[in-house]
Amino acid sequence: MTSILDTIDSPEQLRTLTVPQMEQLAGEIRKEIIEKVSVRGGHIAPNLGVVELTMALHRVFNTPNDLLVWDIGHQAYVHKLLTGRRERFHTIRQFGGLSGYLRRDESPYDTFGASHASTSISAALGMAAARDLKGEDTKVVAIIGDGALTGGMALEAINNAGSMKKNLIIVLNDNDKSISDNVGALHQYLSQVRKVQTTPSYQRLRDMAKGSIERFPVLGDKAREAAGRAETSFKQFVMHSKSGAIFEELGIKFFGPFDGHDIPGMLDVFENVKHIEGPVMVQVVTKKGKGWEVAESDSTKWHGPGAYDYKTGIIKKNAGDPPTYTEVFANTLVEIAEKDPSVVGITAAMAEGTGLKKMHQRFPERYFDVGIAEQHAVTFAAGMATLGIKPVIAIYSTFMQRAFDQVMHDVCVQDLHVVFAMDRAGIVGEDGQTQHGVFDTAFMRILPHMKVMAPKDEEELRHMLYTAVYLDGPVALRYPRGKALGIEMSDELHMLKVGKAELLSPATLEEAERTDCAILAYGSTVAQAEIAAKELAQEGIKATIVNARWAKPLDEELFLHLAKTTRRIVTIEDHVLAGGFGSAVLELFEQHGLLRDIETRLIALPDKYVEHGAPTILKELYGLSSAHLKEVVREMLGTQQHTLA
Description:
- By secondary structure, the chain is α/β, with parallel strands linked by helices.
- Helices cover 40% and strands 15% of the residues.
- The protein is built from 26 helices and 19 strands.
- The strands form four sheets. It has a seven-stranded mixed beta sheet, sandwiched between helices.
- Helix 4 crosses helix 12 (263-273), helix 14 packs parallel to helix 20 and helix 16 runs parallel beside helix 18 (404-412).
- The longest helix is centred in the N-terminal third of the chain and has 19 residues, at 19-37.
- The radius of gyration is 27 Å and the shape is globular.
- 48% of the residues are buried.
């Protein structure tokens, strides 16, 4: 059978296909995604679920003149395949290849490039307002999942859209999932709408009403609007004013649910709604993982897996691999909670990703998933802290950015004891510029009352979490994505002294005073510093290695002593330079008038958004490696001749 996908270079070719050809194309797209993504992993289930929906949107709307705004963008692989990126699709999420999300600099079809949830309606409404100011006639369509619809920003945008009355189409991709199971009253409401409207009795009544409407003479757009109002009134009557009533009351016409895998149905729906004046919401029911049994049966597991065998559906993992930092965090939190009933876990729709699923399984009454609502999560935790509960909020570093005001205003101003466990800190790899967690130290350490720390390995992570739970006031703990180092872990947990670093080598401070320089390493970079020191020692260069542990408060006594005695200080961290650990060290030295008397070098990420690619490639590229660290030390000492080895 001839491959239709091979003939698609833009939506223009898609618009010439028959419905049977589109159905064949849907199967080819699924096969292409399953096979190509298997090499390095990526977002499987979300993309398999939107194949027909994406095809219908590009068929009906005149893209790129008409604007499709995808929420998050992790479900846009189909969109990429249909918009001229088919031949490069095998490079997706690889260094120098296609992004796993949307990027405006990658294609004119990528109209908005954010990849945090709940932004699409706001962006699309802004585009609609700009279109009207320019006197243009384009359609603007926001595609948002039911999970992302629970985000406060999406609800703010809906409120605004209902009052502005701009021509805007909102496609609600209702797949009953975000990453974890969806939660909350709005999710329950949409489930009720979906359940009632898909009953046979409702469908029969709806068909009768629709048939009656269609017997009226066709009067163009006004007739369509009348039909829409009649159907809405009918739905409200059947469901006692509950079908889409929330959105209708806010000024948004609501239609659906419709089968998102029915290509003829989708074409008909979008052909009709694009003529309706004002804001419109269309509920489309899809299934994550559609068309591949292994992904359909466990769409959470297959939301964004690593590399896998597409023939067997087995995710690749070495049996001897150490646990991930996430697993160590989750197990330790449960261990602490076993002995302390005041400890609770909070997540924002990331039960599996943060490991808090284990807390849910062991202590369901002390586990809280608030949905995609990081701001609410933080203030919710602050409220619990006022009554003596010890809340541990597990949120990816990149998502913690969204709640900065709440961290500052609701937690730090009141000096409340809330623990911020920031997973995926540092370079995260193939997900790229919007997902790297490289700003958290900077925005946390500037806040009064906040304490900030990072472990060198999984054993230290355990003790840091225990320490964070039993300190006073706000505490932020950052740790990286992926496998830990395989360090043997102790059974007993103990407190770490606040603001005290660990001298790793040489063994004593007296010996450290006689070394050529001191390397202050923060968090996951400690391992690279230790490797560099051992190799430098073979060249006759002696370096003191310090595990900083704390970015706030700093170990002022140790750092000042090393600066005065070694006269050469290097800092290294998996974070941007601006505002990071190294900046904090420089501030300390400046306050004590030492900068004129010592040499300092700061190794950190530059003032740019780091692209996507394997972490090893990115860390080498930006100098977060033992090789680069050695070069920096040699340059300080004027011993570049050692590089000949």
